[in-house]
Amino acid sequence: MTAHQVGSYGPSVTTENSTPATAPGPPSVEHDPAPQYEIRVAGHLASRWSAWFDGLTVAINDDGTTVICGPVVDQAALHGLIQKLRDVGIPLVSLTQLPSNERTEPPAHPTQKEN
């Protein structure tokens, strides 16, 4: 079997007259955390819906709404969550991107007893 050479479609890169882009040593990995969103829907959803919403936190409120909260990796994933809500007929009340320093989980339901 003969090898097949694939040429580069981009400009050539040479090592002449170049400086290192980073200091020697292990590469530093800096990732921006996924943005946090709060999706408020009409009605009460049980906590088991969390798995259906890719592990986001699901909490009910006394005002008749449910808050779905947590990190969403990108806009495509956010649109996917909104489509899921639409597909099963759950009315969207609000969608808010949370500041990066805000908690992922909404506060516990005021009428819930913690053991």
Describe this structure in words.
Helices cover 15% and strands 22% of the residues. By secondary structure, the chain is an alpha+beta fold. It has a 4-stranded antiparallel sheet with strand order 2-3-1-4, with helices on one face. Strand 2 and strand 3 (65-71) form a beta hairpin. Mean pLDDT is 76; it is low at 4-10 and 106-115.
Task: Give the gist of this structure.
This protein has 115 residues and is α+β, with helices and mostly antiparallel strands.
The parts where pLDDT drops under 50 for at least 5 residues are: 4-10, 106-115
Number of helices: 2
Q: Calculate the mean pLDDT score and round it.
A: 76
Oligomeric assembly: single chain
The end-to-end distance, rounded to whole angstroms, is: 68 Å
Strands of the widest sheet, in order across it, are: 2-3-1-4
Order of helices and strands: EHEEHE
- What does the largest sheet look like? 4 strands, antiparallel
Structural class: alpha+beta
C-alpha Rg, in Å?
A: 23 Å
Helix fraction? 10-25%
**Number of distinct beta strands:** 4
Descriptors for this entry?
115 residues; 4-stranded antiparallel β-sheet; alpha+beta; disordered C terminus; 15% helix; single chain; globular
Topology:
Blueprint: E1 36-42, H1 49-52, E2 57-60, E3 65-71, H2 75-87, E4 92-98
